[in-house]
Automatic annotation (TrEMBL):
Protein name: NADH-quinone oxidoreductase subunit N
Gene: nuoN
Topological type in the membrane: Multi-pass membrane protein
UniProt keyword Membrane present: yes
Organism: Streptomyces lomondensis
Catalytic activity: a quinone + NADH + 5 H(+)(in) = a quinol + NAD(+) + 4 H(+)(out)
Protein's job: NDH-1 shuttles electrons from NADH, via FMN and iron-sulfur (Fe-S) centers, to quinones in the respiratory chain. The immediate electron acceptor for the enzyme in this species is believed to be a menaquinone. Couples the redox reaction to proton translocation (for every two electrons transferred, four hydrogen ions are translocated across the cytoplasmic membrane), and thus conserves the redox energy in a proton gradient.
Length: 507
C-alpha cells in the first residue's frame, strides 16, 4: 500500500514566480556580490564597486517593464491561490519604480561623495548597505501579509541606521544614527505589538483576510482588536515621520552623508507611506472611522509643524540648506497624508491613494534634484549653508536654474507645473472627501512655504559676494542633476501622465 506522504509533500511545495520577485532580488544579490568583491578589489579600483551597484539598480528598475502586462502573485496560501504574500500589481510596480529609481539617483550621488571622502566612508560596506535597504524598500509594496510587511520594513530600515552613522570619527553622524535608531526601534516595537493583537483577534496575518475577519471579531476580543489597530497605526506614523514622531529628521539628515539624506527623504518616506496605505486601506477599511480622523489630524499637524520649523531656520544666521530641506520634507509628509485620510471618507478610495502616489513621484523627482545641486555646492562649501548659494547663477548657471525650478516645484508655482498639479490633486482629494477644513489648512501651509522657498530661489540670482566660485561637476553628479531636471521638466509639460501612471488598481 503506497504512502500518502509524497502527495502531501508535493501539495506543500510552491512554485516561485522569479520574474515577479526579480526587482528586489536583483538589488539584494548585487549587494551581496559587492560586499564579497570588496575583499578582493584593490584600493585604487574601489570605484568599480560603485558602478556595479549603479548597474544593479538600473537592471532592477528595468526588470519592472516585463511585469506591466498583468498582475502576478507568488508565495500563495496552500488551497487558496487568491491569498498571497507577494503581489506585483500596478500599485506595487509604481512604488517599486519610485524606490529603485530614487535609489539609483542616490547611488549616482554616492559615487562622487565616496570619491571625495574615501577615508571616511568604507566603500564595500556602504554599497552593500544601500543595496540591502533598497531591496527591502522594493519588497515592501508587494507585501500582502503583516509578517512580510514588517520584515521588508526592517530590511529597509536597519541598513539605513548604519549608513547614517558610517562616517568614521564624525560625532554628528553617530548622534544622528542613534536618534534614527531609537525612533525606528520604538516604531517597530509598537507595530509588532499591534500586529500581534490583530493576529490574536483574527487568526491571520494576510491583509485581505484581516479585512474580512476583523469586522466579525468575537465580543471578548474586540478590545484586543481595537488596541491592535491603534498600536499598528501609531507604529507606522513613526515610520512616516509624522508629527509628533518627526523629532529625529532634522539631525539625522544633517548628520548623514548627503546622498543618504537624499535617500531617506524620498525612499524612507515611500516605505512608511506604502506600509500605512496597505495597513489602513487594504487591511482595515472597516476601521476607516478610526484611522480617517486620526490621519487627517496628523496631516494638518505635520504640514504646519514642518513649515513652521522651516521658517524658524530663517532666524538662524548660518542655517543649513540640508536642515531646511529636512524641515521641508516634514511639511511635505503632511501633504502626502491628506489623500490617505481622504480615502476614509471618499467613495473612490483608489483615486485618493492615486493622489498620494502621484504626489510622492513628483516630490521624489524634484527633492532628489534639489539634493543633487546641494551635493554640488557641498563639494566646495562643507557647511552647505543657504547663504553659500548666493550668486550660484553667476558661477554655475544651469545648476542654479535647475535648483530654482526644483524649489518652485516644491512650492507649487509656475514654471514648476508638476508641483502645482500635484498640490491641486491632493487639495481636490480633500475637497471631494468633504474635508474642507483640511483643505484650508493645506492652502494656508502652501502660502507659508512660499516664503522660504522663494527666499532661497531669489538668493541664487543675487550678486555674489566676492569673486564667483566655479563649481566642477563630476559625471555622476551631472547625470543625477540632468535626470531629475529632465524628468521634472517633462512632467511639467504633460502632468496628466503622472495620474495615468499612478492609476494603481489596488482594489
Amino acid at each position: 500500500m503506497s504512502s500518502p506522504a509524497p502527495s502531501l509533500a508535493a501539495s506543500l511545495v510552491q512554485s516561485v514566480d522569479w520574474l515577479a520577485i526579480a526587482p528586489p532580488t536583483i538589488a539584494a544579490v548585487v549587494g551581496l556580490a559587492v560586499l564579497v568583491a570588496d575583499l578582493f578589489v584593490a584600493e585604487h579600483r574601489k570605484a568599480l564597486l560603485g558602478w556595479t551597484s549603479v548597474a544593479g539598480l538600473a537592471a532592477a528598475t528595468l526588470l519592472l517593464l516585463p511585469l506591466l502586462d498583468g498582475d502576478r502573485s507568488t508565495f500563495c496560501l496552500t488551497g487558496d491561490a487568491a491569498v498571497c504574500s507577494y503581489t506585483a500589481d500596478r500599485f506595487t510596480l509604481v512604488i517599486q519604480f519610485l524606490v529603485l529609481g530614487g535609489a539609483l539617483l542616490a547611488a549616482l550621488l554616492s559615487v562622487t561623495a565616496l570619491k571625495d571622502a574615501r577615508r571616511e566612508l568604507p566603500e564595500g560596506e556602504y554599497w552593500f548597505l544601500l543595496l540591502s535597504s533598497a531591496a527591502g524598500a522594493a519588497l515592501l509594496p508587494a507585501s500582502r501579509d503583516l509578517a512580510t510587511l514588517i520584515v521588508a520594513l526592517e530590511v529597509a530600515s536597519l541598513p539605513a541606521f548604519a549608513l547614517v552613522g558610517l562616517k568614521h570619527g564624525d560625532r554628528r553622524s553617530s548622534e544622528a544614527a542613534l536618534k534614527f535608531f531609537l525612533s525606528s526601534v520604538t516604531a517597530t516595537a509598537v507595530s509588532l505589538m499591534g500586529i500581534s493583537f490583530l493576529y490574536a483577534s483574527t487568526g491571520t496575518l494576510y491583509l485581505t483576510q484581516i479585512a474580512d475577519r476583523v469586522q466579525s471579531v468575537d465580543g471578548q476580543l474586540q478590545t484586543l482588536a481595537h488596541t491592535g489597530v491603534v498600536l499598528t497605526l501609531v507604529g507606522f506614523a513613526f515610520k512616516t515621520a509624522a508629527v509628533p514622531f518627526h523629532f529625529w529628521v532634522p539631525d539625522t539628515y544633517v548628520g548623514a552623508p548627503l546622498p543618504i539624506a537624499a535617500y531617506l527623504s524620498v525612499i524612507g518616506k515611500a516605505v512608511g507611506f506604502t506600509g500605512l496605505i496597505l495597513v489602513t486601506v487594504v487591511a482595515l477599511p472597516s476601521y476607516a472611522d478610526v484611522w480617517g480622523p486620526a490621519l487627517a489630524a496628523l496631516a494638518a499637524l505635520t504640514m504646519t509643524v514642518g513649515n513652521a520649523g522651516a521658517l524658524r531656520q530663517q532666524a538662524t544666521r548660518a542655517y543649513s540648506a540640508v536642515r531646511l530641506l529636512a524641515w521641508s520634507s516634514v511639511g511635505q509628509a503632511g501633504y502626502l497624508l491628506v489623500p490617505i485620510a481622504a480615502a476614509a471618507y471618499s467613495g473612490d478610495a483608489e483615486k485618493s491613494i492615486g493622489s498620494t502616489v502621484a504626489y510622492a513621484l513628483m516630490y521624489g523627482a524634484v527633492n532628489l534634484g534639489a539634493f543633487a545641486v546641494a551635493a554640488l555646492v557641498g563639494r566646495t562649501k562643507s557647511l552647505n549653508r543657504v547663504a553659500d548659494y548666493r550668486g550660484l547663477y553667476a558661477s554655475s548657471p544651469l545648476p542654479a536654474l535647475l535648483l530654482a525650478f526644483f524649489l518652485l516645484c516644491l512650492a507649487g508655482l509656475p514654471p514648476g507645473i508638476i508641483g502645482l498639479f500635484a498640490k491641486v490633486t491632493v487639495f481636490s482629494a480633500a475637497v471631494d472627501a468633504s474635508l474642507g477644513w483640511l483643505a484650508v489648512v493645506m492652502a494656508v501651509n502652501v502660502v507659508i512655504a512660499l516664503f522660504y522657498y522663494l527666499q532661497w530661489t531669489a538668493l541664487l540670482f543675487r550678486a555674489p559676494e566676492g569673486e564667483p566660485e566655479k563649481h566642477r561637476v563630476p559625471a555622476p553628479l551631472t547625470a543625477a542633476i540632468a535626470l531629475t531636471g529632465v524628468l521634472g521638466i517633462a512632467l511639467s509639460g504633460a502632468p496628466q501622465l503622472v495620474l495615468r501612471f499612478t492609476d494603481t488598481g489596488l482594489f
